[in-house]
Design a protein that fits this description.
The chain has eleven helices and ten strands. The protein is of the alpha/beta class and 310 residues long. It has one domain: Aldolase class I (TIM Barrel). The radius of gyration is 18 Å and the shape is globular.
Length: 310
Amino acid sequence: MRAQSNAGVMSRARKPDWLKTRPPSGERFTDIKQSLRERDLHTVCEEANCPNLGECWSGAAGDGDAADGGPGTATFMLLGDRCSRGCNFCDVETGGMEPPDPDEPTQVADAVADIGLDYVVLTSVDRDDLPDQGAGHFAETIREIKRRDPSVLVECLIPDFRGEPDLVREIIDAGPDVLAHNIETVDRLQWPVRDRRAGYEQSLSVLGQADRESDVFTKTSLMLGVGEYAHEVYQTLSDLRQVGTDIVTFGQYLQPSRSHLEVAKYVHPDVFDTWQRVAEDEFDFRYCASGPMVRSSYRAGELFVESELA
């Protein structure tokens, strides 16, 4: 898909300097990776080839060496490392799913305690193949972490569960502190970007239900650089506030491989700054993280949430 955009300022070419990242390294990084491997756990940091993996893990558990001075985090990916959907932007493998590991909720809780996290992000692949699409397994992991230590803050980045209210409610009832679901892009580009089982209105319905039925923070994320126009981003912010979304993040889309969606634009950091001001000042989002390397599950609101819930 080769779409044009007026939301960025660079043509498709080599990555600009502001997108350079440092490779994973350091003792803390090694310790976290070993803890995860011992328990056969997956993280979206690795499976989705997150560009911030090294910085994020190196700053985990309050080491304080992250760029913003705050703790990093590892985002646990539940229900395996293979997805039932095939979104054109995502590097997670599609098909060949295995049955959920019944020990995974306990193993995740063990890892959280071992690593020493006080803010945990849980996400999962889509599991349309399961009767409850994995909602029960997700909810059990939340409960197990909270059972071990109620003070641990849990952010859940959930699939859309095909918009089924009972499954979304099962996650809410498990007691997360933040419920996130990514709308990913503007309405017009949903299907070139996402699997056709996803959709703009379906994602809005999930976020709206979470806002109506709980007092948790609700959060979503948009990728820029996939062909969106500025007025479409503006409309998306309006729609998100209409359903009560509290936190929004913006990040630059990066092509994982040549077989994935091409980058339409590399968006300048000044444009990300503008969207942050628009989100917070014009639309009154409670918090907005916006920058080329921002990812929805990477220190994008943790400090805000921690301060609000302290």
